[in-house]
Write a structure and sequence with these properties.
Strand 4 (162-167) and strand 5 form a beta hairpin. The strands form two sheets. Strands 3-8-4-5-6-7 form a six-stranded antiparallel sheet. A two-stranded parallel sheet has the order 1-2. The chain has helices at 2-28, 40-55, 63-82, 103-113, 120-124, 128-135, 149-159, 204-208, 221-228, and strands at residues 86-87, 100-101, 141-145, 162-167, 172-177, 182-187, 195-199, 211-215. It is an alpha+beta fold. The protein folds into two domains: 1-32; 40-228, no CATH class.
């Protein structure tokens, strides 16, 4: 009888110890959860609320202050929700992580959902340079031909902080200069074939494109005023 009780006690003790070790082992593993789904409607509402908050003092703000507010609305609120969304040449999705989106539709949808009034479908179907010239005044547009990617990056650094719409030989997206790094935010047709935010200097599409046209949309005072109104 004693031996049976001792055996049961040992089984219980060592069983519990093994279970505790297993729990600790699992806790020490990196936590891998499902991808966080951003509430897109909340993102758009947050921009509307922020615009309402800024409206009374808007005219007294400097261009650089307005530019930062506008740029953050896109790069920190709207665009991140799209990262990982599938690319497709015919994609026209209006909801992140659902369906697919083409590069032109990505640009126009993000701008529209950030609160800039525009003809989403018409501009998305234009040649990228035509789209840029429709959005941005000529003085904010720069063109580059047969330029090395390193020289292109230096040029964007020289143009300063802000958000740019870029047109390439057969692609379009955003260039984001955060004051430190230069990023390419776009619906990529290579690699993962999803919306990506990448270091511009490393992107093969940028490297291979012989022609580049960029419009500094965040620096255009008319765009900023249209966005606020």
């Amino acid at each position: 009888m004693r031996s049976s009780l001792l055996l049961l006690t040992c089984i219980f003790f060592f069983g519990c110890t093994a279970k505790e070790k297993n729990i600790k082992k699992q806790a020490s593993k990196p936590h891998t959860s499902a991808k966080t789904i951003i509430n897109y409607d909340s993102c758009k509402k947050a921009i509307v609320l922020n615009k309402q908050k800024q409206k009374l003092q808007w005219n007294s703000l400097s261009i650089s202050a307005k530019e930062k507010i506008f740029t953050n609305a896109i790069t920190e609120t709207i665009a991140p929700a799209w990262v990982g969304t599938s690319w497709n040449f015919y994609g026209t999705s209006e909801t992140p992580q659902q369906g697919s989106i083409a590069c032109g539709y990505f640009v126009t949808t993000v701008l529209r959902d950030a609160g800039l009034p525009l003809a989403r479908i018409k501009l998305a179907q234009c040649a990228s340079e035509q789209m840029i010239t429709s959005l941005v005044q000529p003085k904010y547009i720069s063109r580059f031909s047969n330029i090395a990617i390193e020289d292109f990056i230096k040029s964007i650094q020289g143009l300063g902080y802000g958000l740019y719409v870029i047109g390439l030989d057969n692609h379009t997206g955003f260039i984001y200069n955060d004051g430190n790094e230069i990023y390419f935010i776009h619906a990529s047709y290579i690699g993962s074939k999803t919306v990506q935010k990448e270091l511009a200097v490393l992107n093969p599409i940028l490297k291979q494109s012989k022609y580049k046209v960029v419009g500094k949309i965040s620096g255009d005072e008319k765009v900023l005023q249209r966005w606020m109104n």
